[in-house]
Design a protein that fits this description.
single chain; alpha/beta; Rossmann fold; five-stranded parallel beta sheet; 5 strands; 42% helix; globular
Amino acid sequence: MTKPKILLAEDDVTMVSLLKTLLKMEGFDVVSLHADDDVPAAVRKEKPDVLLMDVHLLNQSGLDILDDIRKDKDISSLGVVMSSGANVKEECMSRGANGFLLKPYMPDELISLLKQTIKLN
């Protein structure tokens, strides 16, 4: 069985390093993006099971990227989990996120939500 693939869009370098280590230990395949990469293009290329994306990237809005993904018929069914230090869960969910994590979150919260999101898709 192939490992579930997580695409990581996060602008905090330390967070990226920690998440990659944690997710790989949990049996996920992890691909991380630079904060200003074209996320929808990366989704098309990498074909992840879940996109884990920060709401506030360097020069991009995770919410705008989420809108773009949901409008694109080729990738609209992708599972997307959003995270932020601000409690914007309502907005993320209303715009089509499959889940939301308020930073700082516990590793088991993340793993549980990712597994739940993969099962739904």
